[in-house]
């Protein structure tokens, strides 16, 4: 069970979120603070695993509070809870685990708690555990005017679209303002280039046809082409990922 803090200047919002959190068996102690200053005082004396912060609080805002927590030796996982759809990118810059829009839905809060727990596990793992770090990495994406956070390991493949990149997950695709060449460099631990237009996540590869005139790979329901230029690097990555019997 994890202990949490709710910081919001509106008591009804605190009561509602506390009620929803209390329905999840993974949640233990629920602390409350009606201002950023009160939250700081509480966090200096109580052990808290996750902080659910409203952004727009008078005095010390949720973002101000998050920056202050960077000085803490043990920093709680941060989840911003707000009606403001426009601040997700700043929340991402502050290493937020999630970004919840009010009114908070039960199933969405459940996923947020799961992300908090996964982030705590990744933080406790050795620094060399690249898989855990990748799982905890979050990306701010926008779809239909709504901004949300997705995990890197949800991305099955990346498609180049001009100077931008489109991230394809099981549920949807999201256009992000990052060149695919940058993602290729930053995500080299789990992604491989198969074509000038595609990066694929190695854990999501389902089927491969690398012989013949038209090599391809299958990721989910998508069959993607493999260029002759990228084929040797793909074979090398697959060879290094193959489990071999002990000698």
TrEMBL record:
Pfam families to which the protein is assigned, alphabetical: LytTR, Response_reg
Domain Response regulatory, first and last residues per copy: 3-117
Domain annotation HTH LytTR-type: ranges: 139-240
Keywords of this entry: Phosphoprotein
PROSITE patterns cross-referenced by the UniProt entry: HTH_LYTTR (PS50930), RESPONSE_REGULATORY (PS50110)
UniProt-listed Gene3D superfamilies: 3.40.50.2300, LytTr DNA-binding domain
Record PTM 4-aspartylphosphate, positions in chain: 54
Protein's name in the database: Response regulator transcription factor
């Amino acid at each position: 069970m994890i202990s949490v803090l709710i910081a919001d200047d509106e008591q009804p919002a605190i009561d509602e979120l506390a009620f929803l959190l209390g329905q999840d068996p993974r949640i233990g102690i629920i602390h409350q603070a009606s201002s950023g200053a009160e939250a700081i005082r509480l966090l200096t004396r109580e052990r808290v695993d996750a902080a659910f912060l409203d952004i727009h609080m008078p005095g010390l805002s949720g973002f101000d509070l998050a920056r202050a927590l960077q000085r803490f030796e043990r920093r709680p996982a941060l989840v911003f809870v707000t009606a403001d759809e426009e601040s997700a990118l700043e929340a991402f810059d502050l290493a937020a685990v999630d970004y919840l829009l009010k009114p908070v839905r039960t199933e969405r809060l459940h996923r947020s708690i799961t992300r908090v727990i996964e982030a705590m596990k990744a933080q406790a793992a050795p620094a060399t555990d690249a898989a855990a770090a990748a799982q905890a990495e979050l990306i701010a994406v926008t779809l239909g005017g709504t901004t949300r956070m997705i995990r890197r390991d949800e991305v099955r493949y990346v498609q180049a679209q001009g100077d931008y990149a489109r991230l394809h997950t099981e549920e949807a695709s999201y256009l992000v303002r990052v060149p695919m060449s940058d993602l290729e460099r930053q995500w080299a631990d789990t992604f491989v280039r198969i074509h000038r237009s595609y990066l694929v996540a190695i854990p999501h590869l389902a089927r491969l046809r690398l012989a013949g005139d038209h090599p391809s790979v299958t990721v989910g329901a998508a069959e993607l082409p493999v260029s002759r230029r990228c084929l040797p690097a793909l074979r090398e990555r697959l060879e290094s990922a193959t489990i071999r019997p002990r000698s």
